[in-house]
Each structure stands twice: as C-alpha cells, then as structure tokens.
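Retry 2 of 3 after timeout on previous attempt. Resubmitting structure tokens to design endpoint.
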C-alpha cells in the first residue's frame, strides 16, 4: 500500500500543461487522497515512454492524446480510454503584426511553424482545422520537427509566416513581444478529446475499474473547483504551478479555458470523439474512424459523476 495505507496510483503523462489544471488542483487539494488513492505522476523523456510505463505496469494509466491508442489499435496494442480531462484544443496561432481581420484562409500557401516535442497533436489538429474550413492543407509549407522553444525564437527572428504553439506559451510571447499577436485561440474551435487517460486493455481488472472510478470522482471535483472560481481568486496557486510563466498570463489563459469548455466532465465527449476520428483518418493514421465503444469505456466516469451528484444532493 502507499503512504498511510493509501492505494498507489501512478500516472505517466506526456507533458505538464495548463490544460491538465483540474488534475493538479485535485492533487494539491487532497481529492485523490479522499478516494483512498496515493496519486503520483511522472513525465518520461521522450514522451512515448508512457507506453513503456504501461507495459511494465509501473503506471496504472497514461495521460496524453487519444490519437496514440487510436492508431495503435489492431496494429500494435489495444488500449482502453476511460476518462478525459481536456475537451478543447489548447493551441494558439501566432502571426506578426496585428491580428485584426485575420481569417484562416490567410494561411493558404504560407509557411507555418508547428510546435513539436510532445507528439503529433499540434500538426494533426491544425491540418484538420484547415481541411474543415475548405483550405488545402497540402498547399501549406510546414516546419514541425523542431522543439517549441527553438521554433518560437526562430519565428520571432523572421522564420515562417505563422507559429502554432500552446496557448500559454503564445500568451507569454505576446506579453514579451509587441511585434507578434495571437490570430486565433484554438480553444474556440469546437469540442475534441485533446487529453485522455488510457491503459492496456488486457490488464484491466475489476480492481482497476474501481480505482478508475475513484480517480474520476477526484477529477470531477477538480474540474468543478476550477470551473466554480475566477482564476484571479487562485492566482497564487497558478504562480506555484507554472512558475516560468507570468502569473497574469496564467490567469488569463485559465479564464479563457474556463469560458470555452476546456473542462466539462471526465467523460469523453462523443461528438468531439467522432470529429477527431475523422481528422485522424484524413491524416492517414487510421484506415477508418473508430467507433466510440471500440476504444472508450465510459463506465468509470459515468459512475463517478453519479457518485458526485449523490454526494451533492446529500449535503
């Protein structure tokens, strides 16, 4: 058993991001401990080490993009997704000069720098967004195999026409550099299961499902905690969680996310799932879009939501 008799519950994550905020809040405020879970997290380098952590059972689940278990299915390994934390894309599109009058069609036949390092999600989403808006994604030139910080420096130095990176880094860059602006925050561009929790299907047991349910209860509480409060009221916590970002930027991005459905419930949204599956298929990662039930088990999240609701009604 873990500390003070708690059940060990180790998560392996592909990164440390503001769109994971409800999990961090749940951990800081003891919501996982309330469910008997000794929650710990590691971030392997490179990021795909999360799959090794699942395979050797050093982690009970991975946190990352649903595109990985989707493309692995029926090819390498079956993974089951049981919860979602980020319901929207946390990227932003940067341009030089003012963003006034910007339209996605402006990006046709331009050079776009795409943040990499944490997987393929950035390029996958951006190219899907172009296709959804009738823009030929193949007519755009991409620079996408470099580190995000390196690309950010190169963009500010004159490389490319646009830079797609995480919203927090984009806001921080704009705060430092008046010569660039945010043309679009992708959090406004519809539901998508950006970040989910998953594990190897063959290793799921009744005990694992029960632990997942309790994890989701804590996560639901973390989501509710964030959604019920203006980020200004917990700016000190944001400063501690993201010390390398100006706290005013962290507050602004958090409130943007709150207002634009970044965090909803721990259930994977079906509409967003179907949309992303089409995007993954069009990108060549899948032969055909997967059905929701073939890869998602919503039972732990649904049971957690019923449990939280019952607790609230009993108060």
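Retry 2 succeeded. Sequence:
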């Amino acid at each position: 058993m873990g500390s003070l008799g708690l059940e060990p519950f180790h998560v392996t994550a592909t990164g440390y991001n503001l769109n994971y905020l409800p999990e961090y809040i749940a951990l800081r405020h003891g919501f996982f401990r309330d469910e008997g879970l000794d929650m710990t997290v590691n971030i392997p380098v490179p990021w795909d080490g999360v799959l090794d952590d699942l395979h050797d059972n050093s982690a009970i689940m991975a946190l990352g993009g649903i595109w990985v278990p989707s493309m692995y299915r029926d090819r390498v390994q079956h993974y089951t997704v049981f919860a979602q934390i980020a319901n929207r894309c946390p990227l932003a599109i940067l341009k030089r000069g003012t963003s006034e009058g910007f339209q996605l069609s402006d990006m046709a036949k331009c050079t776009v720098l795409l943040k990499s390092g944490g997987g393929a999600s950035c390029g996958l989403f951006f190219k899907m967004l172009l296709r959804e808006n009738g823009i030929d994604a193949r007519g755009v030139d991409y620079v996408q195999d470099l580190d995000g910080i390196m690309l950010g420096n190169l963009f500010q130095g004159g490389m490319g026409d646009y830079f797609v990176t995480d919203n927090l880094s984009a806001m921080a860059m704009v705060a430092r550099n008046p010569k660039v602006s945010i043309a679009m925050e992708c959090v406004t561009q519809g539901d998508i299961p950006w970040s989910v929790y998953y594990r190897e299907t063959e290793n799921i047991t009744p005990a694992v499902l029960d632990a997942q349910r309790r994890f989701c209860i804590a996560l639901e509480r973390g989501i509710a905690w964030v959604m019920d409060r203006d980020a200004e009221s917990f700016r000190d916590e944001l400063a501690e969680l993201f010390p390398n970002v100006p706290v005013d930027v962290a507050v602004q991005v958090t409130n943007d996310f709150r207002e634009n459905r970044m965090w909803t419930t721990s259930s994977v949204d079906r509409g967003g799932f179907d949309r992303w599956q089409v995007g993954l298929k069009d990108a060549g990662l899948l032969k055909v879009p997967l059905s929701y039930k073939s890869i998602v088990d919503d039972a732990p999240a649904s049971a957690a939501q019923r449990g939280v609701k019952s607790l609230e009604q009993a108060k």
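Attempt log closed. The CA atoms of residues 82 and 297 lie 5 Å apart.
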